[in-house]
Design a protein that fits this description.
Order of helices and strands: EHEHEHEHEH
Structural class: alpha/beta
CATH architecture: 3-Layer(aba) Sandwich
Radius of gyration: 13 Å
CATH topology: Rossmann fold
CATH superfamily: Response regulator
CATH class: Alpha Beta
Strand content: 15-25%
Distance between the termini: 9 Å
Strand order of the largest sheet: 2-1-3-4-5
Mean pLDDT: 96
Helix content: 40-55%
Number of strands: 5
Shape: globular
C-alpha cells in the first residue's frame, strides 16, 4: 500500500497550462502543488519541496523534461520520487523512452482539467 499522494512538484513552462493544471490539481484533487516554470527552478525547490510525485512537461526551453528528471535523480530528496510526464509527444517510441527513464505513466496533452486529478490518482494507486 502506498502512502497517500499529497504533494506534487509540477514543472511546466507554458504559463496558461501551468495555471490551469495547478488550479485543477489543488481545487479538484486537493493536492499541494509546487509549480515551477523551468527545470532549473524545480532543482532549486526540490530539496525542500518534500514532493510525493514529480509531474514533468517534456518540451521546455533550456532543460527539457528528460534533462530535468536526470538532474532531479541526482538530488537525494528526489532520487526515488515517482514521476509522470505530461506531454503532447506521445508516440509509442517517445512513451517507451519516458517509461525507460522510470516514468509511471505519460499523460497526453491537451488534458481535461476536471479529470487530471483522478487520472493521477489512478496512476498512483496502480504503482507496483
Amino acid at each position: 500500500m502506498h502512502s497517500p499522494l499529497c504533494r506534487i512538484l509540477y514543472v511546466e513552462d507554458e504559463p496558461d497550462i501551468r495555471v490551469v493544471a495547478q488550479m485543477a490539481l489543488e481545487a479538484v484533487g486537493g493536492f499541494t502543488v509546487i509549480a515551477c516554470a523551468c527545470g532549473a527552478h524545480a532543482l532549486s525547490v526540490a530539496p525542500q519541496a518534500r514532493a510525493d510525485l514529480l509531474l514533468l512537461d517534456v518540451m521546455m526551453p533550456g532543460m527539457d523534461g528528460l534533462g530535468t528528471l536526470r538532474a532531479l535523480r541526482e538530488l537525494p530528496a528526489t532520487a526515488h520520487t515517482p514521476v509522470i510526464f505530461m506531454t503532447a509527444k506521445v508516440q509509442a517510441a517517445e512513451v517507451a523512452v519516458y517509461k525507460a527513464m522510470g516514468a509511471l505513466e505519460v499523460i497526453s496533452k491537451p488534458f481535461d482539467p476536471m479529470e487530471l486529478s483522478a487520472h493521477i490518482q489512478r496512476i498512483w494507486a496502480a504503482q507496483p
